[in-house]
Structures are given as C-alpha cells and as structure tokens.
Amino acid sequence: MSDWHDKFGGDGKTPTQPISAQNSPTETSVDTLTSNNPEHVWQHVQGKLRAVLGDRVHMSWTGQLTLQSADEVHVVLSAPSKFVAGRIDGKYGDLVRKLWAECDTRRVVIGRVVIGKSVMGAKISTPKNSPARATPYQAPPKFVQHAKDTAQQIAEGGGQAPLQNKDRFTFENFVVGGPNELAFAVARRVASSTQSQYNPIVIHGPHGMGKTHLLHAVKTEAAKIDPARRVRLISAEDFVASFVQSVRAQGRTEIDAFKSSLRDVDLLIIDDAHFIADKPGSQEELMHTLISLVDGGKQILLASDRHPQAINKASERLKSHLCGGLLCDIGAADYELRLRILDRLIERRRAGGHPALAMPSDARDHLAARINATPRDLEGAFNQVVARLEFLGKPLTLESIQEALAHSRYTGQVRPTVDKIQRATAKQFGISMEDMLSKRRARAIARPRQVAMYLAKMLTTRSLPDIGRRFGGRDHTTVIHAVKRIEQLRTEDSGLNSNIETLLEKFNT
Predict the structure, then answer these.
(1) If pLDDT is split at 50, 70 and 90, which confidence band does 125 have?
(2) Which residues on adjacent β-strands are paired with residue 202?
(3) 268 — phi, psi (to 5°)?
(4) Is 450 contained in some domain?
(5) pTM higher than 0.70, yes or no?
(6) In a domain? residue 93
(7) Using an 8 Å Cβ cutoff, are 180 and 230 in contact?
C-alpha cells in the first residue's frame, strides 16, 4: 500500500460543498486529506479518476458514484441504478479500489443498495460553512448500520459486488478435460504462486473455450490466497480506451497515471490481448508494459483468440516477447469434455431450483455428439433444450431434444464434405489441390495432407477407406497413421495446432 495514509495531516476542515453534490470534482492534494475522513478521501479519488479516465469517461460512469455510507471497515459508493453500478464495478471497480486503498484502509463496495422496496438515497454530506472537525470522522449511526448490512449481504451471497455474472467464474466451476488441462493447471499455479518462472503466459484458443473464465478464476483465487497481492484484470477494450484517453489528455500526469495503473501490480491479467495488438500505439504500450513487469519480476497472464505468431498486425518484436514465456493452447472440446460440461450444467440447474431435472443418457449423449462446437455454444443449446421443459412442460427425451434442435443454429450447420476440407486446408497451408492429391511426400505437402485427412475423419461420416480413396487412392492405414500423427503434433506444435483451430472455426461457423 502507498505511504500516503501515513502522511495524512491536513487542516482538519471539511469541504465547503458536499462531495455527493459535486458534478466536477477537482483533485485534492494528499496533504489536505483529513485522516479517517471518507469525504476528503472520496474527493481525492474522484480527482484521480478524472485524471486517469479522462473527463468524458469519468462523467459518464465513475462521476455518477456518490459516497453513501461508511463505517470503520467499509465504504459504500452508490450508483443511480443496478445497471450503472454493475457497469462501473465491472470496468472501473479495480481502479476505484486501488485509488481508495492508496489513501484509506476501508473496503470499497459499489452498488445500488435497496432496503425493502425503497432505495436508500441518503448521502454523507456536510452543510456549507460547517465548523471544522477536531476529531476523526465518525459516520452517523444509520450509515454505519447500512454499511454493515450491505457487507453482510455480500458475505452471505444475498447481495452482489460487483453486480455481475462473473461470480461463477471460479476454478471449481471450470470443467477440465484433455483440450484445456494444461491451461487450467498453469492458471492455478499463477493464482497460488508469486514466482514468475514462465513470463509472460499466454492462453490462446478460439472464442467460447473458457479463457475468460480462467482469467477471472485466477483473479478470484489470488485475492483469496493473498489479499495483499496486487492483481489487475483488464480487458483489451479498456486497455485501449484508457490509453487513448491518456494520450488525448496531452498531459504527462495522465499518461503516467495510466502506466502506473498497469505496472504498479504484482499480477497483470489482460483478456483479448490480440485486440490490443491490432492498434499500433496501444501495441507499443503493451510491449513496454510487458518488458517493465518481466524485468521487475512481476507476473503477466494474457488471453488471445489465436497463437501470437498468428496475430497478423503484431510486430515481430511483440510476437517475440509474447512467445518468450509459456504458451497454453485450449483446443476444441472433444466428446468426453462435452459430456462433462453437460453433467456440470445439469448439476448447476438442479442446484438453481430444478432438483428433479433429469436427462436420459441417450439424450445426453446425442446432445454432446451433435453440438460439436465451443463450450459456450453447448451451454446455449442446453439452455434451449431445458427451456422447452420449463415453459412447455415437455420431458427431456431423445425425441424432444431432437425436436428442440431441429432448427437450431447449433445443429443447422451442414457437415463439410471431404472436398471442402481439402480445399480449405490447401488454402490455409498455401499448397494447391494438385499437391494435396499427389503422391509427393515432401513435408510441406505431406503435413497439410495429413491435416486434411484428420479433419475429414473428425468432421465427416465417411469411412476410413472412403477417405483414403478421396486422397489420391490411398489405403485406409494411411489415414489411420495421419490421424494419429496429427493428434500427437497438436500437443507438440503450437503453430500447426493454431492452423487446425482456424480451420475448425471456419467449419463450425
């Protein structure tokens, strides 16, 4: 924590205008803060928020927060609606808490607190021209009780802070299987250990595979294990927006504040890092942030929807830095993993108010086999099936599931033909169809051919002999060898695996 808290001295005077009524707060000097006075701390934090986020973002979001209540342990910041509270806490909550922690030890809660059916609209404020306080700030009794009640609701799960659906993104709720077991194991190690043996760590794979789930799980677990550990999770969108705001402000203070928010941490987690690499200026800032944290022995964890070498607009220098640590691939969910995901979804639905929910094994197996897509798509299909049970009263049977998915986008995809697979693979690897069907055995030709055989076996209903005949009259044993070889190489060659994932994504859209 900053030593600012030890330097509070101030003149002990209260603001001449209530903090909650200030639409355009100005930054308060640390030296003027009154020890234990949340009004002064909040005024200072608002000034810092404006400097870091810029006028437009601050006025649109964090500027809507008001200091609602406080006690010895908690401070409640209230927003005008649940939506605004959830949005602020999700995007800027970490920054608000970091800036507050630099000045005061209370825990910040952001929300729209409702007591009974009425919203508690009272705010901590001080009348104009009030005499200076000679003693540390003491919140009125109703504010103290209100803050305690809010904290108790959150502790018991009756309230939410933040008001988001990220609470279920824990390690316990992550379904582990062959395609994601390495990424899961690495994420757990990052959460529990302060040693940065691999740095940076990049978890990559197509959208919907659980990367964001793992990132939030790391942040949650790290805070649970070591509350003093400084962890920052930021999306690429927020990274770019904050960087642009700091540059547009045209002030050294704003840029330094942005850099400090990313570098004064023990663990930096960035989601959708490939998006940052698409923006030249932000890409340069990302690279310098990586260098600064790695040199300082701090851990960096990033998620990307593709292998760093496949991020087309990334500079070779950035690609080198991203590949210099540990790359963890999350591959397409196989049949066994999809079954596990369905079992977890059924458990969750039972615990959520449908204890009698049951799905026959043949129906469950059919759903796992048909939804050959991402875990997110599988969950969407499951919800669609269960909704028919809830709203129409139809039992979960093989027939009802087939009916529910008859016109669904999850199963409406036409299976690719062997010819389509061959052509797409040839294009992906830069060879011709003539090469694909030829007898040539050069690795630059043979490897794409094996990939196409592997995909044909995986995505079509053709028999092995039939697939072999469509590859220049080859024997079915050649197909078997190709499938086994590619399965092995997917775990060893990240570049090859990235190309295969790209092809799978094309066929699943």
Answers:
(1) very low
(2) 302, 327
(3) -105, 125
(4) yes
(5) no
(6) yes
(7) no
